[in-house]
Amino acid sequence: MDAQVAAHLGELAALTAALCWSLNSLAFEAAGRRVGSLAVNYLRIFVAFPLLTLTAWLTRGLALPLDAPPHAWLWLSISGLVGFVFGDIFLFRAFVEIGSRISLLIRSLGPPITALLSFLLLGERLAPRGLVGIFLVTLGISLVILGRSPQEKKVRLNRPLKGVIYAALGAVGEALGMVLSKLGMGSYNALAATQIRLLAAFLAFTLIITWGKKWPEMARALRDLPALRFITLGAILGPFLGVAAALFALQRTPAGIASSLTSLSPVLIIPFSMLIFKEKVLPKEVLGALISIAGVALLFL
Length: 301
Fold this sequence. Notes:
Layout: H1 3-7, H2 9-35, H3 37-60, H4 70-98, H5 100-107, H6 110-122, H7 128-145, E1 146-148, E2 155-157, H8 161-185, H9 190-211, H10 215-222, H11 225-252, H12 255-262, H13 265-276, H14 283-300
Antiparallel strand pairs: 1-2
C-alpha cells in the first residue's frame, strides 16, 4: 500500500462513511415511505448484523465480540440504544416527513453537539473558534429551513416543524452515541464494536415492537419486495459499511477530523437527490449546506 495512502486511511474511511450515509439515507427514505420508519429500523439489523459477523470472522477469526471487556459491552450497548434506537427512530421519521436531504443537513448539528458533550462529559477543550463553528452550522441550517413569506413578510419554517424536530433529535442521538462509542471502544475492533451496538438495538426494537403490538406491521413490511430491496441496500451502506468506516476513522484519526469529514453527507447527497428523486435544489440550499460544513470544519480543525 502506498505510504501516503496508508497515512490517511482514517480520513479516507471518514469520507467513505459520508458517502455511504448519503446513499443509505436515500434508500431508507424510499423504504420508509412504503413500510414506515420502525420497520426499516428493525429489518435493517437482519441484513447488517450477518454481514458484520461474516466480516468479523474473516478478519478477526471471531464471529462474535466475545473478547470485548465488560466496560466495552456496557458503553457500546448504551451507545447502540442512544444512537441506533433513539437517534435513528427520529431520524428515519424525519426522512419521511421532510426528506433525507434536509434531514441530513439538520443532522450536521451532530458534530457541534458532540463537541459540547465532549466538553461536558470528557473534559475536552472547546476553543473560541469552536463557538464560531457552531454559529456557522446553525446559520447554514437556518438558511435552508427558513424562508420569508411574501404576503406576511415574516420569516417562518419552510419545512414541517415536526420533521425538523425529528431530525434535530436524531442529531442529538447521533452525537451522544458517538461520545459513548468513544468511551467504550478505545482500541477495540471497530466491526466488533458495531456488532455490540446492533445487538443492543435489536433487543430494544424487539421490546418496542412487542410492547406496541407492531408485529403485523413487520409482517406487512416483509411482503413488500421493493421496500425490502431498499432496506437491504441501505443496511449494507449504513449500519455495515458506513458505521464500521466511521468507527475505523475514529481509531485512525482525531475525532474532530473524523467528525468533520463524515459530516459531508449533506453536500454529497445533493446530486443524488436531484437525480433520483428529481428534487429542485435552490442555490441558497447548496450555500446553506456548504456553510454548515465549513462550520463543522472550523469547529474541529
